[in-house]
């Protein structure tokens, strides 16, 4: 390994910049985590599954799966 190179610099040289990141993930809208926390804290009948379904309905093609949500 060349002197002064760290692991990340070596990976970027071998794989190109942005290695290990999914380009699709960067295009996906993030859920509003503050709103999710608030809904779960204030309404005992609200479940995460329901909040994910609402998120999925708002972003049908780019939403995260339930396990990633």
Description of the structure:
The protein has 69 residues and is an all-alpha fold. The protein has helices at 7-15, 23-27, 33-42, 48-58.
Q: Helix and strand layout, with pairings?
A:
Layout: H1 7-15, H2 23-27, H3 33-42, H4 48-58
Describe the structure in brief.
The chain is mainly alpha-helical and 69 residues long.
Question: Which descriptors apply to this entry?
Answer:
69 residues, mainly alpha, 4 helices, elongated
* Percent of sequence in beta strands: under 5%
Gap from first CA to last CA: 39 Å
| Biggest pleated sheet | none
Helix/strand-derived category reads: mainly alpha
Please state the average pLDDT score. Answer: 84
The counted number of beta strands is 0
Q: What would the principal axes of the Cα set say about the shape?
A: elongated
Q: Report the uncertain regions.
A: none
Helical content (DSSP H or I, runs of 4+) = 40-55%
């Amino acid at each position: 390994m060349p002197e002064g190179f760290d692991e990340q610099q070596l990976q970027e040289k071998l794989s190109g910049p942005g290695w290990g990141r999914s380009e699709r993930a960067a295009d996906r809208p993030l859920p509003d985590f503050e709103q999710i926390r608030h809904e779960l804290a204030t309404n005992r009948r609200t479940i995460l599954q329901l909040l994910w379904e609402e998120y999925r309905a708002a972003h049908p093609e780019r939403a995260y799966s339930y396990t990633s949500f």
